[in-house]
Amino acid sequence: MLEVRNVTRVFGQKAAVDDISFTVEGPAFVGIIGRSGAGKSTFLRIMNRLTDASSGQILVEGRDILALRGSAQRQWQSDCAMIFQQFNLVPRMDVVSNVLHGILNRRSTVQTMFNLWSQADILRALSILDRLGIVEQAPKRAEALSGGQQQRVAIARALMQDPKIILADEPIASLDPMNAQVVMDTLKRINVEDGRMVIANLHTLDTARRYCDRVIGMRDGRIVFDGTPAQLSTGVARDIYGADASFNEAATSTAIPADHGPDDAYAAKMLA
Ligand SMILES: Nc1ncnc2c1ncn2[C@@H]1O[C@H](COP(=O)(O)OP(=O)(O)OP(=O)(O)O)[C@@H](O)[C@H]1O
To answer: Domains, the chain, ranges and CATH?
Structure first.
C-alpha cells in the first residue's frame, strides 16, 4: 500500500532525510521515533507535500505521490490528513466550524466568503464530534477547550477529509498523560475501526511500544531501526537516541498509566 523509496531531503549541506526506504502493507499504525532533529517532521511534511523531497519516490497504491502536481496534488493532500502538536485550530472560531474547515478546499470562493455550509456537511461534522465524545463542545470556541479536547477537534477535522492516511506530528507532546492517552486511543480506534493508516511521530518510547504495530527509528536522517514494538529493547532505543550507557528510558516516557492499554475502559468511557 505504501512504499517509500530512497527518499532524501537536503537543506544546504545537510540531509535532513537521508535515503530512507520502507514498505507498509495494509492499514498499520506506524510510529516514528528519534531524537530532536532526526528528520521525523521533515519526512511527514514530504509525505503530505508540504515540503519537497530532493530525490526519491513515495508510492501509494502504486502511484508516486511526490510526482503529483496541481489538482492531483491537492487531492492527495486531502487523502492524507495531518495533525500537529499545537492542534492548529482557529482559536476564536467555534468547534464545529473548525471541523468543517477540513473540507474548506472543496468549496467555492462564494461559499467560503459567506461561510455557507450544507446541512449534510454540518451533520457529518457533528456526527464525527459525537463519535470522538466531544459533540457537546460543538458551539464553543476552540480556545475554550482543554488541550486533549482541542486535539480531538483536530482529529475530527482530519476525519472530515475522509483521509486514507493520517499523519500525526508529535500529537501528544503538549498534553498531560490522561489527555495523551485519550488522544492516542482515538487515533488507534480510527486505525482499527476505519482501516486508515496512521503514521505518528512520537517522542516517547512507551507510547510507541503500546500503540504501534510497527516502529521506525530515525537518527541523523537515516532509518536505524525498523521493527515491532517487542523488538524495541532498551539497547536498540539507546542506539536510536544516540545515548550512552546512562540512557534512561524514563526520560522518554509519557507516563500514561501502565495498567491502561489502548481501547480500555477509560478511553471507552471518554469516547463513548
Ligand atoms: N526548512 C528548513 N531549513 C533548514 N533546515 C531544516 C529545515 N527543516 C528542517 N531542517 C533541519 O533538518 C533536520 C531535521 O529536522 P526535523 O524537524 O525533521 O527533525 P525532527 O526529528 O522532526 O525533530 P523535532 O522533533 O525537533 O521536530 C534538523 O537539523 C533541522 O534543523
So the answer is: 2-271 (3.40.50.300)
